[in-house]
Amino acid sequence: MKPKMKRYKKGLLISSCVFFGLALILCIHIYIVTKPKVDANTLAMARIDFKQSIDQQDAEKITAWLYHQNGVDHVFCNKDSRIAVFTYYPFKTNASAITDKLSKGLNYKAERIIPTREELQNGCPAMAHSYSAKIYSLIKNIF
Predict the structure, then answer these.
(1) Cα–Cα distance for residue pair 110/76, rounded to 1 Å
(2) Are both 53 and 20 inside the same structural domain?
(3) How far apart are the two ends of the chain, measured CA to CA in Å?
(4) Which of 55, 56, 80, 113 would staple 47 via disulfide (CB 3.0–4.6 Å)?
(5) Torsion angles phi and psi, residue 73, rounded to 5
(6) Does an H or E element contain 29, and which?
(7) Which residue has the higher pLDDT, 71 or 1?
(8) Coil, strand, or helix at residue 117?
(9) Can you say whether the dihedral through the CA atoms of 91, 72, 43, 53 is positive or negative?
């Protein structure tokens, strides 16, 4: 009876080790496959609001200054809304650091606007009043 019990325990131990080993491999595989693919070509967008009025010369000065920052790809500065929007490579620079540097270097009262989680869920604000956005929100509310 004892040799059978030893063989049973040994088989159970080997089976358990194989099962947990395969489960570990599966977990690692799922992590590798589902992790977000972020590479050096990933672009992010940032918004800077100015707490003072700016004219066309200021907007051009801000635009030129932002274009000269490492990692900044494209810049749009609107004097009427006192907003600058730029795309940048997160691996090369940090939008908050650029905003701080802009405030100190050019003496503007600038604040980086970071959208809330709810605002991010709503999607693009430019599309908020389009027909497709209204249809999407209707379908979303139904289901």
Answers:
(1) 15
(2) no
(3) 62
(4) 113
(5) -100, -55
(6) helix 2-34
(7) 71
(8) helix
(9) positive
Tokens of residue 10, six digits: 């040994």
Query: Which of the 8 DSSP states describes residue 49?
Result: E
Q: Most confidently modeled of 39-43, 87-91, 121-125, 134-138?
A: 87-91
pLDDT confidence of residue 91: 86
Is residue 56 within 8 A of residue 122, CB to CB? The reply is: no
Helix H or strand E encompassing 71: none
Q: Residue 66 domain-assigned?
A: yes
CA distance 71 to 58: 22
Residue where the block lists tokens 């059978």? 4
| Residue 65, helix vs strand vs coil | helix
**What is the distance between the alpha carbons of residues 83 and 59, in angstroms, rounded to a whole number?**
9
Q: What is the mean pLDDT of the chain?
A: 83
Look up the domain containing 21 and give its range: 1-35
CB 68 within 8 A of CB 24: no
pTM: 0.58
Total domains in the fold of the chain: 2
